[in-house]
C-alpha cells in the first residue's frame, strides 16, 4: 500500500480526505501543520505528499522546499485556495508535481494522485533502467577489456606470424611470431614499414588489389609460399590472409604465416631415414639369401670333391647339379634385384591381353599338371586389342600365376581338386582387370601384410622374397593397382587393374 | 650299429650336403623336409642327433627346438642348429616366446651359421656324438 502524507491545518479536511483516500487504497499519514508534516515525512518516507498551501507557521511552499531537499523524487501535490494562481505557480517553480483547488473534489484528487503515481512509476522505471544500463555498460567494458587483452595476448603468443596493416598497407600489428619468421623486430616494422616491404611481390599485389581493385577477393586460403627474411634467406611458409572490412569498406589487411622450416627439415630426415631403413633391410635380406646360396655351393663343391677323389660318378653328378642349381638361384636373385632397382618406363604398344594370359598359362601348364593343379582360362573375348606394355603384363601374370600354383602345392588339404584361374576383363574406366584365383593354402592377415615387403618369403629356399615386390613395382610403373583377398585354407584372389589406351584404328 | 642323425631342412641341397658329410663320417643319416615331419621322426626313430634348420615351412626350427627342450622324454635329444639365420636372431625369438608365457629353454650347444665348411660340420657332429 502506498504511503501518503496528508498535511492540513484544518482537522475536518484532514479527516474527510483521509476517509476517501483510505477508500482509494492509500496508507494515509495525517499531519496538522507543516512542522508536524515534515517530521512525519522524515520518519515515514512517503512517496506522495498532499499539503495545504496556507498554514500557520510553516506553510505549504516551505514544506515543498524541505521535502524536495530531502527527496527530489517525492511527489508533492499542493492544495490551493480558489483563485490562488500566484501561489500555485510558485509551488510549481519549486517542483510541485501538481496542484488542486479547494474545495477538494474527489475526482480532481484522484486524477492528481493518479498522475503522481504514474510519474513515480516512470521515475522508478527510469531509475532502474539507468542502474541497469550502468551495470551493463560496466560489464561490457570489462568484457571488452578482457577480450582485447585476450586478443593481444593471443596475437603476441601465437606461434604463427601475424601481420596486420591499415588500408594504406602500413604495418600496425607485427607479433613475435612474425618477427621470428621475417627477421625484423616489432619496432622496425610497426608504423615503420609497409607490407609491400615484407611480402613477396605477388602476395603484396593480391593484398593491394583486395583493398583497391575491382575484384575484391577478401580471403586468401592457406597455401605454401616462400618469403624472404631480412637477412635475405628464403623461408618456406604457409600463408593465409584476409582483407579486413568495416561496414563493407576495406579497412586493412591481416596475414598469417606458419614457419615451415622445421617441417621441411623433418620431412627430409624422414625420407632419408626411410631410405636408410630400406637399404638396411635390403642388405640384411640379401645377406641371408646369399648365405644360403653359398652354403649350397659349398655343399656342391664338397660332393664334387668326394666324387673326383673316390671316382664316384653319382656324387660327382649330384654335386655338380647342386652347384648348377645354386648358380640359378644366384642368377634369379640378381635378376629380381636388378628389375626391382631399375627404373623402367612402360613400353606401350598394341597387344592382346587374352593372348598374353594364354601364353603364361602354357608356360605353367607342365608344372601345374605335374602337381595335379588345373589351370582354368576365363577369357573375355570382347577385350580385343589395347595399348599397354605387354612385357609388364606377361611378367606380372607369370609371377602371380606361379605363386597361385605354389599356393596349391603348399596346401595340405588332399581332398581338394586344386585349380588356378585367370580372368581378364574390361572395366569401364579404361582399365583391364586381371583376376588370378587359386583354391590353395591361402594366407593369414600377417602374411598378407608382409606380402610386398622385401625378402619376405613363405616358400623357404624356393623364393627370393622379391617376386611380389617386383610385381608391385611393375604395376605401379604402369599406374595400376593390386588387391589381395585371401582366406587361410580357402585360397587367394589377386586382382590387378592396369589402365590402357585405345589402339589407334583410324577412328579418332 | 652306427649312430643315427636326423637332418631337418626344407632345402634339398642343404640336406644332401649334411647327409654326405654324415655318410663320409660313418653315421646313418635320416631326413625330414619340415619341422612337423621332423618332430614325428624324432619320436619314432629316436635319432642320436638332430641337425636342425630354423626357417622352414609348416613348423619352424624355433618351435621344434622349443618342443624338444620342453618335453620330458625328448629334452635330452642332442641338437645342432644349422641355419642362415644369425644366432642372436634365434635367441631373440626364443626369448620372446619365453616372455610370452613359454618355458625357459637352454641355448643350443652348437649353433652353426650357413655357409659352413664340411670339415666344420663334421667336427661339430663328432663332438656332439663323442
Short description:
The complex is a heterodimer of chains A (508) and B (130). Chain A has helices spanning 11-23, 34-44, 60-70, 85-93, 106-157, 176-182, 186-189, 195-198, 201-212, 261-309, 313-341, 353-370, 390-409, 445-450, 467-477, and strands spanning 3-7, 27-31, 48-52, 75-80, 98-101, 161-166, 171-174, 219-228, 234-246, 249-259, 349-351, 374-377, 386-388, 419-427, 431-438, 481-487, 491-499, 501-502.
Short descriptors:
heterodimer, A: 508 residues, alpha/beta, Rossmann fold, Beta-Lactamase, 5-stranded parallel β-sheet, 5-stranded antiparallel β-sheet, 15 helices, elongated, disordered C terminus, B: 130 residues, 5 helices, 5 strands
Would you give an account of this structure?
The complex is a heterodimer of chains A (508) and B (130). By secondary structure, chain A is α/β, with parallel strands linked by helices. Chain A has 15 helices and 18 strands. Chain A has helices at residues 11-23, 34-44, 60-70, 85-93, 106-157, 176-182, 186-189, 195-198, 201-212, 261-309, 313-341, 353-370, 390-409, 445-450, 467-477, and strands spanning 3-7, 27-31, 48-52, 75-80, 98-101, 161-166, 171-174, 219-228, 234-246, 249-259, 349-351, 374-377, 386-388, 419-427, 431-438, 481-487, 491-499, 501-502. In chain A, strands 2-1-3-4-5 form a five-stranded parallel sheet, sandwiched between helices. In chain A, strands 7-6-10-9-8 form a five-stranded antiparallel sheet. In chain A, helix 2 (34-44) packs parallel to helix 3 and helix 10 runs antiparallel to helix 11. The longest helix of chain A is centred in the first third of the chain and has 52 residues, at 106-157. Chain B has 130 residues and is α/β, with parallel strands linked by helices. Chain B has a single domain, classed as Rossmann fold, CATH 3.40.50. In chain B, 45% of the residues lie in helices and 18% in strands. Chain B contains five helices and five strands, in the order βαβαβαβαβα. Chain B has a five-stranded parallel sheet with strand order 2-1-3-4-5. In chain B, helix 1 links the parallel strand 1 (4-8) and strand 2 (28-32). In chain B, helix 1 (12-24) crosses helix 5 (118-129) and helix 2 (35-45) packs parallel to helix 3. Chain B starts with a strand and ends with a helix. The model of chain B has no long low-confidence stretch (mean pLDDT 90). Chains A and B meet through helix 10 and helix 11 of A and helix 1 of B.
